[in-house]
Automatic annotation (TrEMBL):
Segments forming domain ATPase AAA-type core: 46-362
Protein name: AAA15 family ATPase/GTPase
Gene3D superfamilies for the chain: P-loop containing nucleotide triphosphate hydrolases
Lineage, highest ranks first: Bacteria, Pseudomonadati, Bacteroidota, Cytophagia, Cytophagales
Highest taxon, organism lineage: Bacteria
A Gene Ontology molecular function term of the record: ATP binding
Length: 431
């Protein structure tokens, strides 16, 4: 479970910025939105609001980038770049490394793991452990080398010299079957980041869950409760057939595709609809192709439902950018409520997502410490703050306020500034 995530000097985020899932002492929705461990009360997630280009997607991308670097670090060569872009609007930061850090729990032990990285080099890396309250270092990496605490982290000894400049030491220790490293890598593997705009690639996860009899009924029941307009699903898997490729593809591309998709399968998904006669009497059923004949919202909901329920089953962390894109507000609400449900979220999974759907501020039943806002200042720096931190005339925002109304009116910031559009229209019409 995630406790905190921090990032600094990355894209539009200049200064260290932290999203915390520690529950504050406020009282609302304690029964549904909070879960308790032996040491902490934690939130089941957070929602991030902000204008277009405010930086909320950059914060989500920072989480995805940290996960990518951890899980793929060992596979890269010494010549590979790391795809890291610092905050470029200041001479103070443009040549400095980016900062990433996560604080999380595994087997009732708290870990704090992070690193500083530029496009070519891991400049610093650290791992701390706290089995009770006192934190102790397991290893610390700086420019002059890696210091391993032999009593606390013996699995890291003698691997310092095997670590490339652009590889994470944690990933190297994992490759040599380090016990603690393997636990942390597994945690990052259960830390899933997806895009609400580019969701086609997650269909395979959904398909796999529908093939599994233990998870199939859960998904089908979810679709039926949402009343998506179809009665059932017909799913088939067949080997890739090169004859289905367009005839006008270049020969070189066809050869490459044949190599890439050798042994692959094509997933075919049909929705089942009831067919009626002229007197509206049911006379049978008809199949529709999911991709071409169902709405973009239905396709998105189907594609991301696999990762959603996969995380709910595993008790992991799901991070989504633009969750509400192409979805009716009630469908977005249905997904978010799964994580605040005792029935569906029995393993304390967490959901962090960015959205423009202000309805959730009224109907999502989010606590003030779960609502975050991101806005850019005049220097192009993204700044993030939670509603529970926000002060108006020196006073905290009351829980009985209309958060949606206040946000739309600009009381909390993090909204687009729209000038006088009538002047723009007049000038355009006069041209």
């Amino acid at each position: 479970m995630l406790l905190e995530f921090s990032v600094g000097n990355y894209l539009s985020i200049k200064n260290k910025t932290t999203l915390s899932l520690f529950a504050t002492p406020i009282k609302e929705h304690k029964e549904t939105n909070i879960f308790s461990t032996e040491r902490y009360e934690l939130l089941k997630g957070a929602v991030i609001y902000g204008a277009n280009a405010s930086g909320k997607s950059n914060f989500i991308k920072a989480m995805s980038t940290m996960r990518r670097l951890v899980l793929q670090s060992f596979e890269q060569s010494s010549a590979d770049e790391l795809d890291i872009v610092p905050f470029l609007l200041s001479t103070e930061t443009e040549k400095k490394p980016s900062f990433f850090e996560a604080v999380f729990m595994v087997d009732n032990t708290r870990y704090r793991y992070g690193f500083e990285v530029d496009n070519h080099t891991i400049n610093a890396e650290w791992l701390f452990e706290a089995q009770k309250h006192t934190e102790k270092p397991l290893f610390i990496r700086e420019h002059d080398g890696i210091e391993v605490m032999s009593r606390s982290f013996p699995e890291g000894k003698d691997l310092e010299e095997r670590t490339r400049d652009n590889a994470l030491f944690l990933a190297v220790v994992d490759q040599f079957n380090g016990k603690i490293a393997k636990k942390i890598m597994k945690w990052f593997n259960n830390f899933i980041t997806i895009s609400g705009l580019k969701h086609e690639g997650y269909k395979g996860v959904t398909f796999g869950m529908l093939e599994n009899k233990q998870t199939q009924n859960t998904l089908l029941d979810f679709y039926k409760k949402l009343d998506l307009g179809f009665d059932d699903l017909a799913i088939s898997k067949k080997p890739f057939d090169h004859k289905e490729l367009p005839n006008d593809l270049p020969e070189g591309l066809v050869k490459q595709l044949l190599t890439d998709f050798e042994g692959a399968f094509k997933i075919d998904i049909k929705t089942i609809h009831t067919k009626y006669d002229a007197k509206n009497k049911a006379i049978g059923q008809i199949e529709f192709d999911m991709r071409s004949q169902e709405s973009s919202g239905t396709n998105k909901l189907f594609n991301i439902s696999g990762p959603v329920f996969d995380v709910l089953n595993d008790g992991g962390l799901l991070v989504v950018d633009e969750l509400d894109a192409s979805l009716h507000p009630l469908l977005t609400l249905a997904i978010t409520k799964l994580f605040n449900s005792k029935e569906f979220n029995r393993n304390n999974a967490q959901l962090i997502f960015a959205t423009h759907d202000t309805n959730l501020l009224n109907y999502g039943n989010y606590r003030r410490d779960q609502i975050y806002f991101v806005e850019k200042n005049k220097y192009g720096e993204s700044e993030m703050y939670s509603l529970v931190e926000y002060k108006e005339e020196g006073k905290a925002i009351r829980k009985d306020r209309s958060f949606e109304k206040d946000y739309i009116e600009g009381r909390y910031g993090a909204i687009p500034f729209i000038g006088n559009l009538s002047n723009v229209m007049t000038e355009w019409q006069e041209k």
